[in-house]
Design goal:
By secondary structure, the protein is an all-alpha fold. The protein is 78% helix and 0% strand. It has helices at residues 2-37, 42-65, 81-112, 125-152, 154-159.
């Protein structure tokens, strides 16, 4: 199971790198065209913005898996060890609920805005708003796995010295 998760994360990282590369190429070409020819590819600005949205949500999945998000733990560490375990469980459940809210909101926005098209590229805006749903599902899966592992670690957590 661990290998499958690592393979999926590796694929996700490759997709993120590909999106960043495409976005960078679009921006660099556009800057060069503006500087040397006083013209630009109009659609590249809009596509770069949309790619950036997907990069952020996909990157948040990878960051959550690698514990790369910023968090403050000095308050939780001030409590006794058994209470720290409970606090971590509560925090992870709250994060899972936030993913649920993000998922529901993104799906609703996607459905509602599928008829609206972006001004230049003509892409249905529902596809852009769906990035939030993809990020929410990915982060939710990571959190569910983390909660299950946390529940299984109760006895070893309590036996560790503070």
């Amino acid at each position: 199971m661990e290998r499958i998760g690592n393979a999926i994360m590796k694929c996700l990282e490759v997709v993120i790198v590909a999106l960043i590369s495409v976005m960078s190429i679009l921006v660099i070409i556009n800057v060069g065209l503006r500087f040397f020819f006083s013209s630009s590819i109009v659609v590249s600005e809009e596509l770069s913005r949309f790619l950036f949205i997907y990069i952020v949500f996909l990157g948040s999945i990878v960051a959550l898996k690698e514990n790369g998000h910023i968090y403050v733990d000095f308050i939780a560490k001030a409590f006794p060890r058994p209470l720290q375990w409970v606090i971590q469980l509560i925090v992870q459940c709250c994060m899972l609920y936030c993913c649920y809210v993000l998922l529901m909101g993104s799906v609703e926005l996607s459905e509602y805005n599928m008829v609206d098209k972006s001004p230049v590229a003509g892409i249905p805006m529902g596809y852009i708003y769906f990035a939030g749903a993809i990020g929410a599902v990915g982060m939710g899966i990571v959190l569910i796995i983390r909660i299950v592992q946390h529940l299984k670690s109760f006895s070893t957590w309590m036996s560790k010295e503070a």
